[in-house]
Protein 1
Amino acid sequence: MPIRQLPDILINQIAAGEVVERPASVVKELVENALDAGATRVDIDLEEGGSRLIRIRDDGAGIPGDELPLAISRHATSKIASLDDLEGVGTLGFRGEALPSIASVSRFSMTSRRGDAAHGASLDVDGGRVGAVTPKPHPQGTTVEVRDLFFNVPARRKFLKAERTELGHIEEWLRQLALARPDVELRVSHNGRPSKRWKGESDLLSDVRLNETLGEEFARNALHVDHAAAGLRLHGWIAQPAYNRASADQQYLYVNGRAIRDRSVAHAVKQAYADVLFHGRQPAYVLFLELDPRRVDVNVHPAKHEVRFRDARLIHDFVYRTLQGALAETRAGTAIGQGV
Ligand code: ADP
Ligand code: MG
């Protein structure tokens, strides 16, 4: 075959392979967009585990009607404009890839209104084929509808699991998010019935939310940690050793508000527990690491599950020492924070 330039739709469908694995990845990208737009409330309506319908409505800033076609164009973003912005990026999104990817493998529509606009506007995309912008009433904010995910990519659609399984993945991701953003109200419905609701509470992670997400027993055994040094801050909750798990299912790590997996930090936590946990048992924790965004590269993976630290060793040792100190103090009988 001669070399040829691929058409845009196909390029987006190829990118979708990396960004859109299953309905939960769509929910993740769309809710992150809502949060980046400053939403205080996000409604998530699902049908058939999200494979039939994912509808996300937010009360964020909204998009001007004439920018809707840009929003679903590849590499179009309002979040960065230069390499310098990228290096200090504070938003969850920045690649300008999610919407075109999702819209290329679903029946997609986006309706939005900015606070200052007289009326809303809507744009449909069918399997990557973009329609025209039409006026449509909408309160301030944005609604994105994703129907029939992978309808035009049978090989991917075939790999979708049972409704319960897909819903489980969505809820697990929302749980992660709910822990990081207790200030945002999240409402979920599935097949027309309300299924989950996290009320927007406050800036602080309330024990209510800890209870709801990790269970009462975790909350009862949780030690509050908050320590800063060398421009790093680690805060959150770790379970006392008496509460431990057979698997790593209650290990939540956030870096600058983004849920990530990191071997080095996970290792540091395990090390801190090494003397106080039985071999093979796993600690439970919800930890937030905050640092200058310039010290961490978030542009490592299209789905942004991983980051790269400029000074990984320093961070490892900081996490280890902070938690080891906290655990040692409880053993000595002087909890550094109160159990929640
Ligand atoms: P990214 O989030 O990386 O910028 P996306 O493809 O997810 O890329 O979104 C493209 C652009 O569309 C965003 O930069 C933003 O300007 C706009 N956008 C998407 N979703 C929303 C939303 N819910 N509210 C306001 N603007 C949005
Ligand atoms: Mg995005």
Protein 2
Amino acid sequence: VELGERLRAAAPPATATPRIYAVASGKGGVGKSTVTANLAVALAASGQRVGVLDADVWGYSIPQLFGVHRTPVALGGVMLPVQAHGVALISTGFFVADGTPVVWRGPMLHKALQQFLTDVAWGGLDVLLLDLPPGTGDITMSLLELVPDAALLAVTTPQAAARTVATRVGRMAREAGMPIAGVVENMSASVCAGCGEHTAVFGSGGGDQLAAEVDAPLLGQVPLDIELRAAGDRGRPVVLDSPAAASAVELTRIATAL
Ligand code: ADP
């Protein structure tokens, strides 16, 4: 039997409709994109066909996190997603030269997102992750309309300032009828590799409280981890780059729940 045939046989069949998760946060900088990238790579490593749609059109960071900057090929009216680390990717970052600000306004953004959803040849996907911009702005609202069958994955740090704004996104999703798959607490207490001491730089309790407020499970707590940050900067998500790192172990565990 040819290798290609054996590989196809080994891969699980793509489901007719992929599971879609909209990864959201109340504010920027809480690690939403980092969590998205790592969950995607962990899911792909488990044999699933995974796509990431970077809907953070102004603050896109998916190209950097995956270490790719390539313009998607257009073929017969559709775009082929860019492949990296076993994941299919589409991002506005692929269409602008590095450092060029994205200055699109609402209607154009809505159109771009619509195109990303309809004109991208994703192939058969098992899971699609949408990396939303932070907050409850236009794009979040557009996506709730465009992808009604998505489930929300809310990312927060343990800090109250991040949790209270994430609650608003959760409420917005609920009002739009979107189910909430769960909460990921990121930047939780770091563990000293030398002495094992826990340091809660951003405090504690944000994930638990958000989960209670939006009535969804807390899927995991990803520690503040220098390895995760360094891996992201290298364009190789930590679950791939340093799978034994504490953050990688937890992110891989969270992916199995999706
Ligand atoms: P967001 O998408 O919420 O704006 P990012 O994913 O871009 O946030 O993360 C913001 C910064 O924090 C990045 O520099 C990233 O490397 C870093 N970071 C995210 N999560 C962690 C973590 N658990 N430990 C250490 N650094 C992290």
